[in-house]
Amino acid sequence: MKGYVLMKKAFATMAAVVISAAVMTACGGKVPENTVHSIDDLNGKTIGVQQGTTGDTLASDIDDAKVEKYNKYADAVQSLKQGKVDAVIIDSDTASAFINKNDDIELLDEGFADEEYAIAMNLDNTALQAEINTALDELKKDGTLDAIKNYYDGESAGENKFTPDANADTSKGKLVMATNAEFPPYEYKEGSDIVGFDVDMMTAVCQKLGYELEIENMIFNSIIPAVKSGKADVGVAGMTVTEDRQQNVLFSDSYTTTHLVVMVRK
Prior knowledge:
This protein is an alpha/beta fold. Helices cover 35% and strands 22% of the residues. The strands form 3 sheets. Strands 1, 2, 3, 4, 5 and 13 form a 6-stranded mixed β-sheet that branches. The protein has a 5-stranded mixed β-sheet with strand order 10-7-11-6-12, sandwiched between helices. The chain is globular. It starts with a helix and ends with a strand.
């Protein structure tokens, strides 16, 4: 699991604005010592999660744990630093981005759970599901998906960024993507722009299919309702396929596998 902690310098620089703006060093008051040194130590503890995520669901199953839910991971990490929660359950890539900017937090050596991310669509939109699965399969086979992932978290992180084709076919019109730009490296803000792995991946998918990508930023829990209501065509925000979500939306094939980890104070 230590391997997940290693975030390359290039991405650390890229995500610095997001993280430093969101997480300030705790000040005032005495911060309690860390008491979580293993997964078993989570029993009975106060755990921070981002509301609506897989971590939120899994934390609720921990014996006697109190789960504090936040709209943004940055707020959960801030509470951890201040001693308001004992641990944060978080995606490993996102955790690395925070740890690179905060030397008073770390990850347990044990992994918590694996999860696969997929694209959500309206339950009736099987045609779009088939289109997107075809595009994802092509992007996997030609190496584009791996190259995009590696730019954000891989041996060549920070190198060979995906460049959209300015002359790409957009004859099918706009495809609206609902996201929550609080989840680096998958989606976050650089200035007024929303960037990240999911944005590049969906741009590549749209180029394959002939759509113009339009991004709508919203809180995480609004993404599935937006897809269900037709406000958005797809929901893309590091979203794990769960049985509960499958009652409300269709999912594409998985486009990446990641890991949930436990963040604690040093």
